[in-house]
Amino acid sequence: MSRFSLRSPQSPFAPVITGCVYFAAASFTVSISRFEGGLAFIWIANAFLMAELLTTRTSYWPRAVVACAIASAIATALFGIGPVAAAPMALINVSESLIVAVICRSLLKEDVVTGSFKPLVVFILALCGVADIVTGVAAAAVASATTPVGFSASWLQWYSGHALGGLTCTPVVILLLQGEWSRWLRDTPKAVKIEAIILLALFTLVTVHVFYWARYPMLFAPMLPLVLIAFRVGHIGAAASIVILAVIGGVATMSDTGPLMLIPLSTGERVLAFQFYLALSFLLSMPVAAELNGRRRLFQMLQESESRFRAIAEHSGDVVLNISLAGTVEYASPSAQDMIGCAPALLVGQSVTELADAQDREAVRTIHAQALAQPGSVQQAEFRPLTALSDLDCCEMVSRAVVDERGQPVGVVSMIRDISRHKARQRALQQVAAHDALTGADSRRAFLDKLDAEMLRAADGARSCLLLIDLDHFKSVNDRYGHGGGDRVLTGFVQRILPELRDGDSIGRLGGEEFAILLADCDRRDASQLCDRLRQRLAAPISVNDQADTIAVTFSAGLVQLNGGSTRSAMLEAADRALYDAKHSGRNCLRLAA
């Protein structure tokens, strides 16, 4: 459904046309409804200005307001209460329309004030509860000073004429300006148009009968077809009915004909009574029609959403689930058969947690509860499926609550996708990142993570040692045999070391020719003995190239026993100082940290 957008008249003649329409409406109502020498009892000109402001961009407002102010001043001077009051009455008239427009624009996110219930209520309150009360005081002050009518009577004339005229005419003009009438004629099926014409003809006949032919007061009679039209035709039909009622009833009342003649009142008071009747008819039909129109839009949006959901669910490779508040599967898409090897019909009625391995069911249960507790948020969890095809070992579930018109959750929509390949790539990348690409030893980051874990064990009483190793005179190897030869020495060094390490021990390359060995459950004496064995394994020379050149490798080492009450940095610094001492003690030796 297309959304209404604000107009932005670009023609230089647009303000002139606006002013002319306002002048015609003002002159007409002033000429026919100044029954007591004061203000007009009927006023529809401001209804046109309000509709113009509410359907155009604010950039057009100054031109429209100035044009209508000039038109109001001329109409008041020629046909109203005189030239003296023309300027102040013009300012008051445009102020009423501006107040309503500003309030509606400030409180409503949408650009329209018809077609749905909330905008219509805001418009009614802005007009009757604020604008006409405020401007009525100013208008009554001007009128009481320039006419024989008192302040109270003038305020009543202003408030009733402007409030009732604005209520009944503004929504109708808005529908016309925003193209609702032409859109209805263009898009409505022929059968619906015929039904609308029949209902409006029936309403016209009833209204004519009530105001011209009936021998008894039957003002209630048009209400039944009016409500019926609101239900069957919508806000367009309700607006058309109000126009018909206003024209027929207004002409009859102004001609001293109809049921209102039975009331012993003046003509002006009868006009006010008819406008009050017309306003009640408006309040009976338009809000109902607006609410029904809003529900029709909501129903259409739901149908479109349902169609999109079905199209996605039926053809998506992911499994789509509708889950109840209690966590029971109510719908499963056909892809469940291909992904998890289970027919959708077999999933319906089962708890969604049954899809996950027993160890991961709590995660599924948690995101379901979080989705219901935080409507609008998206919850995610990974789990291993309980039953699945052979190549599926990890799934991701994405859940979001479904809410009703009050924003309360009524269920959850979840999507399950296969992330097995993603997790495999992730594990492969982690594996690559955890090892030094050249030597196969742990990377610096991976080794430091293991050192942190061992520090925690040491804090609980475990005895472990850290051994820092630096190959002696490694720069000369690179200088003599090139970096290729140096790489072979580093690789050969690690290969000689690994067989001496136990399960739980780790060797990591911290950078260049510097290595670290983490010895779990080992004191300094055992670590020193291990260091001696490592020297023995390095006694045999290491090949540095394909020409059978070899080189003997030695290393200097610094040893520290981990202190659980200290920090990782402190342990590394202590081992590094011991290594420094070893290098300055002739190399190829071990030194213990103090």
UniProtKB/TrEMBL annotation:
Query: Per the record, what is one GO cellular component?
Result: plasma membrane
Main site of residence?
membrane
- Source domain of life: Bacteria
Which membrane topology term applies here? Multi-pass membrane protein
Residues in PAS domain copies = 305-375
Q: Which GO terms describe its molecular function?
A: diguanylate cyclase activity
Tell me its EC number(s), please.
2.7.7.65
Question: Record's Pfam families?
Answer: GGDEF (PF00990), MASE1 (PF05231), PAS_4 (PF08448)
Which UniProt key words apply to this protein?
Cell membrane, Membrane, Transmembrane, Transmembrane helix
Annotated GGDEF domain residues = 462-594
Q: Give the matching SMART domains.
A: GGDEF (SM00267), PAS (SM00091)
- Keyword Transmembrane on entry: yes
Domain called PAC: residue spans = 379-431
Picking any one GO biological process from the record gives: cell adhesion involved in single-species biofilm formation
Which parts pass through the membrane?
12-32, 38-55, 64-84, 90-108, 120-143, 155-177, 197-214, 226-251, 271-290
- Cell location: Cell membrane
Fetch the PROSITE patterns from UniProt: GGDEF, PAC, PAS, PROKAR_LIPOPROTEIN
Name under which the protein is recorded = diguanylate cyclase
Source species: Sphingobium lactosutens DS20
